[in-house]
Predict the 3D structure of the following.
Amino acid sequence: MKKCSHFFDFLISHAKIYGFIFPSSEIYGGLNAIYDYGPHGVELKNNIKEFWWKSMTQIHENIVGVDSSILMHSNVWHASGHVDQFNELLIENKDSNKRYRPEILIQEYVDKNFLNDPKKKEKTLSRLSKSLKKRDLLDIKILIDELCICDPVFKRKNWTEIRHFNMMFKIKNGNEKDLYLRPETAQGIFSNFQNIIRSNRMKIPFGIAQIGKSFRNEIIARKFIFRMREFEQMEMQFFILPEEEMKWYEYWKKNRLKWHLELNSEDNKKSYKLCDHDHLAHYASVGADIKFHFPFGFQEIEGIHSRRDFDLKNHEFFSKKKLRIFELDRNYIPYVIETSLGLDRLFLAIFSSSLKKEKLKNGKIRIVLKLPYYLSPIKAAIFPLVRKDGLPEIAKKIFNDIRGYHRLVYDEKESIGKLYRRQDAIGTPFCFTVDYNTIKTDTVTIRYRDNMEQKRIHIKEISKIIEQETGLRKILKNLSNFR
Ligand code: ATP
């Protein structure tokens, strides 16, 4: 299916109709760039988390986990540089009162208008890039004026000056110091550095992994769950000898790309690419993005950075505590390689590459979510062919016997064809149907989601098939062989 805005609208509506993602507070008109995960969405999200968590903490004997609080001492954010430097550029249209990021306004204008003039495009983007590097806000404003860029929605050119905008949400905390909602999970790792070393006897090199919510007051939050104000990150900070910075940076870049390809590579190899960063975050000395081909183009899904000793050094200074490694002949602040993946963006990447509209031989359209089996919210469905003659009872018994081992559904609410369609739409890999033959032979039909083929199998085989086909074992084994 063609990846375009029409497809993206279809995807958003599919996600809602089939219980994956709902707009937050919808009964009150919704809340800009905040979403909730529905019954199937939360299962898919949990499966993605489980896979990431196991790939980090189970596959690597030197990576441990942590679950730190969202609210932290406000000095954490002074030390990390977020209070002073976690800024985006902001320009406002005085007529529409809409806020934009000027560099994105220019990029989008150039993409749209200089299609047939690559030299002009390159010249404009190179000027933008230089001005961004020099933090020359005046020149970026002049560029917007020279290009006569209007508000994309309201078509007005009446712009304010460009200013910096801090992206952290501040919380008023009575008479005490202001608190912040964390904009990244990483600081909960740095602030627990000593506790984790001591309690778990960690030796360099080692990593600390964390999954959790982050919050950013994005200037333009849009593209569904791609850019939200409340989102989830899966981050891992890997502590190393300073002289091994580039070795580990290269290792994690390759490792992370391999991970994405293992997870979602069927037909999607070309949808991933690794790109070096042009504009580094304030804490990074070198960085790269893994980009995915979303319905709206290639965009970042995960960042890999070297944060060197930036964070631990600043926390040492602010906290007056020693955050270093003590070895026999040396004491030092380790360098850090970070892998930082947005869970919601990964969800969107997997969802968009799995959602297909297929034309069947009879001319009808089938909508099917071809998720990797181990990520499917429901691993198998059990149906009776008809709601009579004892078939529901047999199907219910099969369901009850194995539901303790697998995430299953039992359904008898519609005709068999409709039941199959519904499971296709939510990505269930297998459907098992109890029919009149079952009574005589203890066999059922298994129907495969991807090619809709059917065959008969013995009831005893059902659990084994689900286990073999949908478990994480094989893919984790492939990853554990990565060097
Ligand atoms: P972008 O340039 O797209 O704003 P970033 O470079 O600021 O992203 P990082 O700070 O490196 O992002 O965060 C790591 C990951 O967290 C990103 O690769 C992305 O997957 C995810 N992420 C960041 N901001 C958001 C957001 N507002 N909504 C959803 N996911 C996000």
Observations:
- The chain has a mean pLDDT of 93.
- Residues 216, 218, 227-228, 231, 233, 300-303, 340-342, 344-345 surround adenosine-5'-triphosphate (CB under 6 Å).
- The CA atoms of residues 267 and 353 lie 9 Å apart.
- The radius of gyration is 26 Å.
